């Protein structure tokens, strides 16, 4: 069974830069997994941030960026703001009509 | 503006059935691939299943935990997506989100509804 891994939690200072990662239990993440990223605050529906590795969804500020770093997908937030404090989820497309979400990263801005 | 509005959630006993609906507007529903994603209380997101547009074959795919118990269907005349859930288990308790899917060379969940809560409990 394929497991997508994310850091359970991370903290960043206001104005700082943080990189969250998305890996595979076995193997490397590449662009062929079409990594995408979603932001969710408590009680709200997820919001699409990044798709196809590094394309920002409409209306997403350019302080959010996506990439492949080593063998993982990555979401970098540059100049973190207080309202970036959220849960962040990545999802990978495994092919054959199957997607798997990571467990999510709880980001604290303090 | 794209709108996805889920309905049909509620309390059901283990072993029971429930049908969720998602009313779509603001886009050409018949051309869209659609998906369901769920979130158990205090837990992360979990992909449930996807249905392609009829133009692309209308086929469905499901996550292993729900395969054989859940069925996704669509009514393009009513712009409605449905999720029929049978043989429900307590671990199916979750908020169920309806999403649009950009397929082909994108493969991501573009728009999300606000979710419907399903509670499976005796």
Explain how this protein is built.
The complex is a heterodimer of chains A (110) and B (122). Chain A has strands at residues 4-6, 9-12, 17-24, 36-40, 47-51, 55-56, 64-69, 72-78, 87-95, 98-101, 105-109. Chain A is an all-beta fold and 110 residues long. In chain A, strands 2, 4, 5, 6, 9, 10 and 11 form a seven-stranded mixed β-sheet that branches. Chain A is globular, with a radius of gyration of 13 Å. The N and C termini of chain A lie far apart (36 Å). The model of chain A has no long low-confidence stretch (mean pLDDT 97). Chain B has 122 residues and is mostly beta strands. Chain B has strands at residues 3-7, 10-12, 18-25, 33-39, 45-51, 60-62, 70-75, 80-85, 94-102, 108-112, 116-120. The A-B interface holds A 1, 34, 36, 38, 40, 45-48, 51-52, 57, 87, 89, 91, 93, 96-104 and B 35, 37, 44-47, 50, 59, 61, 63-64, 97, 102, 105-115.
Rg result of chain B:
14 Å
Low-confidence stretches of chain B: none
Percent in helix of chain A: under 10%
Which structural class do the helices and strands of chain B define?
mainly beta
The helix/strand class of chain A is: mainly beta
Strand content of chain B: over 45%
| Largest inter-chain contact set | A-B, 25 and 24 residues
- Backbone shape of chain A: globular
Arithmetic mean pLDDT of chain A? 97
SSE run of chain B: EEEEEEEEEEE
Query: What form of chain B results from the Cα inertia axes?
Result: globular
Distance between the termini of chain A: 36 Å
Helix content of chain B: under 10%
Q: Name the quaternary structure.
A: heterodimer
Count the beta strands of chain A. 11
């Amino acid at each position: 069974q394929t497991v997508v891994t994310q850091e359970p939690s991370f903290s960043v200072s206001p104005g700082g830069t943080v990189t969250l990662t998305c890996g595979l239990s076995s193997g490397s993440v590449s662009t062929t997994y079409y990594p995408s990223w979603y932001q969710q605050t408590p009680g709200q529906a997820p919001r699409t941030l990044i798709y196809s590795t590094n394309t920002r969804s409409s209306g997403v500020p350019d302080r959010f960026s996506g990439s492949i770093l080593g063998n993982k997908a990555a979401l970098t937030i540059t100049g973190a703001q207080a309202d970036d404090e959220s849960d962040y989820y990545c999802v990978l497309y495994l092919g054959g009509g199957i997607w798997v979400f990571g467990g999510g990263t709880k980001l604290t801005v303090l | 503006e794209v709108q996805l509005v889920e309905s049909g959630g509620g309390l059901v006993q283990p072993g029971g059935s429930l049908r969720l609906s998602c009313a779509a507007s603001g886009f050409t529903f018949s051309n869209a691939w659609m998906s369901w994603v769920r979130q158990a209380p205090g837990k992360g997101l979990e992909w449930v299943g996807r249905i392609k547009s009829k133009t692309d074959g209308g086929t469905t795919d499901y996550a292993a935990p729900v395969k054989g118990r859940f069925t996704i269907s669509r009514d393009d005349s009513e712009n409605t997506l449905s999720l029929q859930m049978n043989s429900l288990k307590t671990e199916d308790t979750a908020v169920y989100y309806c999403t649009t899917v950009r397929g082909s060379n994108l493969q991501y969940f573009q728009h999300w509804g606000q979710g419907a809560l399903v509670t499976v409990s005796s």
